Amino acid sequence: MMTFVRPVILQRDDVRLEPLALEHEAGLQAAAADGELWQLRVTSVPTAEDTRGYIERALQSRAAGQRFAFAVIEASSGKVLGTTSYHDILPEVKRLEIGYTWYAKSVQRSHVNTCCKLLLLSHAFDTLGCNVVGWRTDNFNFASQRAIERLGAKKDGVIRGHALRRDGTIRDTVMYSLHQAEWPEVRAHLEYLLRRTNVG
Q1: Which residue, 73, 77, 75, is CA-closest to 28?
Q2: Rounded to 5 degrees, what are φ and ψ at 157?
Q3: DSSP labels for 183-197?
Q4: Residues pairing with 158 in the sheet
Q5: DSSP code for 153
Q6: How confident is the model at residue 42, as a pLDDT?
Q7: Which terminus of the chain faces fewer neighbouring Cβ atoms within 10 Å, N or C?
Q8: φ, ψ for residue 129 (rounded to 5)?
């Protein structure tokens, strides 16, 4: 995996993605506390007590080549805004997924997610040469589904009875993907959205 997804810092304007590390623990706790995000049923945001374990598990997954997690940082202040990841990394077919994404409530519905997606997709398609980038989300996470669809990703289908939620219920998983040939149009759209918010 390390020859495919390497440690990298990605930045555009005031949004920086850097490899998630234990030094981000306090910042990640504060971001999760902004909105008490761990109470959301359809996400995997850690509680304050589990934040260190959350980071340690992400680092273990990185070492195993399964997931590469980033801290989302406000570059001007160094404030941690949330986290996002490449995961289900398949070097042999040049496919990966973007997920494990959450942001402090105060920056949700802002330019931050658009900027992060542009950075991650640009790196995946233009630097890593991916053929396909995918997403997956809980069937009841309608906000996430709308956000993925706004990117221009196509819905591949639903995997029924696919995974456990934190409350012990079993979720269906909605799958999406974006192909290399679709990327130029999606990139132009994301650039337009950022210009419209006077960030890009």
Answers
A1: 73
A2: 150, -170
A3: HHHHHHHHHHHHHHT
A4: 174
A5: P
A6: 63
A7: C
A8: 70, 35
Helix 51-63 × helix 25-33 angle, to 10°? 120
Q: Which residue has the tokens 């012990």?
A: 168
- Assigned token pair, 151: 């990117």
Residues in the chain, overall count: 200
Read off the pLDDT band of 200 (50, 70, 90): very low
Place of tokens 């956000």: 147
pLDDT in tens, 152-199: 899 999 999 998 887 889 999 999 999 999 999 999 999 999 988 764
- On the 0-12 / 13-18 / 19+ scale of CB atoms within 10 A, 125 is buried
Sheet holding 132-138, edge to edge: 10-12, 15-19, 67-74, 79-90, 95-103, 132-138, 170-179, 154-164
Q: Which two tokens stand for residue 39?
A: 């109470």
- Say how far apart CA 55 and CA 23 lie, in whole Å: 10
Q: pLDDT by residue (tens digit) across 81-137? A: 999 999 999 999 999 999 999 999 999 888 999 999 999 999 999 999 999 999 999
pLDDT at residue 166 in the model: 78
Instruction: Provide the whole-model pTM.
Output: 0.91
Query: What would the two tokens of residue 7 be?
Result: 């440690």
